[in-house]
Amino acid sequence: MTDSSTQAALGRRLMARLDEAARHSQPGPGVTRLFCSDEHRAVLELIADWMRQAGLSPELDASGNLVGRNARAARGERTLILGSHQDTVTEGGKYDGMLGVALPLQALQALKEAGTELLYGVEVVAFGDEEGTRFQSTLIGSRALAGTFDPASLEARDAEGVTLGEALEAFGGNPQAIPQVARRPESVFGFVEVHIEQGPVLEQRDQAVGIVTALTGIERHRLSLRGKAGHAGTTPMAGRRDALVGAAEMVVEADRALNATPDLVGVVGKLDVRPNAVNVIPAEVNFTLELRSPSADVREKGRREILEACQRIARTRGLELSSEPTYGAEAVACAEWLIEALEGACRACDEPTQRLFSGAGHDGLAMHDLTDIGMLFVRCKEGLSHHPDEAISEEDAGRATRVLMRFLSDLGSAPETRDRD
């Protein structure tokens, strides 16, 4: 079989696997698969089978991650961790997260079938929760591996009032044993994630893959705005304390500040209105504010400007406003040696070596606390993500798999311990 036919076969098989995983979704457009849900449970059965085909032994850990280990990792040899998250946003796409689970498993299976033995430990992790869609508490699984999991997260509740701890226990995890999930830094020599770019750069440059240099910093806040309910037909417009009107003005002000600040992006992504009735003045609105920038100073300036504007709006409209941070992660750099190793694999596969910055957060934000991180981006159509129309091509799937196979085989043995920045 020629290299081109092998690459085509890899692409077809990977796309078929991703299609199969996408069927484990709540009804509706796109893919909706939440942490500790029935869909999560079902997709792990599929992933566990992929792990076995790749020569790995699967195991559900205490934090809800599915971890597949090769024999060397199981014996405690120094290990490279690969993987990404299985969960999605509501009505998301097939590839965000799941590509980084399916592709390394396929690469490992292809190397195994070719008789290539890797002289180091390998783990592939299907992280349980990265998006935070269900509990608004992200990076649960990767923080567990990194040893930075906050037990207070177990008290977070979903829309039905179920706590994260309760959901995890019902799923088969063990909230009390999460501290034991943490890896010893000396046992791991790196973490590498494959992910769709979620942006337009690779498509604009007509390149299948790119090498990430750093991951953006992210912070999230929950704002609660309280006014006063009343009959929508009998209460005069003047003097109304309409929480939704105030929230709408705040959303517009946030958008203005974000557009006026270089290197800062953000979104008000979720609003909950009470009592949410057609003929009642809204008494309460809870909404989220997310800010992203590689610069902590830029985020701080933007946050201060937006929150001060929201307080002015609340005072003007006679509303009560409170805010609290719900999540924060600083920008982190990818390790230069992993960047160079991925570049070498790209060159060996006749792929351009494009370096680019990630404007999205990933499990690497947490894994950086444990070990060196690296990341390979794959081109996605129109840079679209978190959307049912999210798409990659079969050809790019095959090309990215070949690059990762070359990267894994070229490592030889576990690199010596490196001093981290």
TrEMBL record:
Instruction: Give the top-rank taxon of the lineage listed in the UniProt record for this protein.
Output: Bacteria
> How and how many cofactors are bound, per the record note?
Binds 2 Zn(2+) ions per subunit.
Annotated allantoate binding lies at: R220, N279, R292
Any idea which positions bind Zn(2+) 1?
A: H85, D96, H195
What the entry lists under PANTHER family is as follows: ALLANTOATE DEIMINASE-RELATED
Q: Which UniProt keywords apply?
A: Hydrolase, Manganese, Metal-binding, Zinc
Q: Which GO terms describe its molecular function?
A: hydrolase activity, acting on carbon-nitrogen (but not peptide) bonds, in linear amidines; metal ion binding
Names of the cofactor(s): Zn(2+); Mn(2+)
Domain called Peptidase M20 dimerisation: residue spans: 217-314
Known partners and oligomeric status: Homodimer.
The UniProt similarity line reads:
Belongs to the peptidase M20 family.
Q: What is this protein called?
A: Allantoate deiminase
Q: Which residues bind Zn(2+) 2?
A: D96, E131, H386
Annotated source species: Billgrantia gudaonensis
